Amino acid sequence: MKPTPHTHLKYKICISGAAETGHCSEDALEKTKELARQVILHNAVLVTGATTGAPFWAAIGAKDAGGFVIGLSPASSEAEHVKKYRLPVDYHDIIIYTGFGYSGRNLLLTRSADAVLFTCGRIGTVNEFTIAFEDNKPIGVLTSTGWMTDDIIKKIIEEGHRGSGKVVYDDDPKTLVEKVLALVKKEKVVEI
What we know:
globular; alpha/beta; Rossmann fold; 7 helices
């Protein structure tokens, strides 16, 4: 039997955000769940850092919408993921154990995605943002979700003197996903 060529692979959209969410806005986690739900409803696959907090809520939102979720772990095995890092395995279809710690995982996480969406975050999220920005990835920022999503990212871009990148902002999850997917589709060229 001759294999059928694929004319369209699903887009891989990463949601990045704080693992500890005490500083996030009151509705940040529900908005993050909706953001992931919109990723799935727009026929994409969710990629997360396989961690707690906002990425975990994103995984829940994606699975609630019937989606497929890939996690990239800083650990080298499931045992290390759960015991050493104390990270969940729930709500993911596949977890890739990178063995590269958080900073190495962040690099693989952003590079494996076609675009990265950011919600309320901390320093690890800033690290993921700067990697995605340097790699010229399409980026979406879910504003009004807490620290870094309203002013910090704009300040990093402005004071970094590296251009404006491919960054879009919105406080509505559906609209943000549509804006980011438009950027992704604009640069995708598939020849068969």
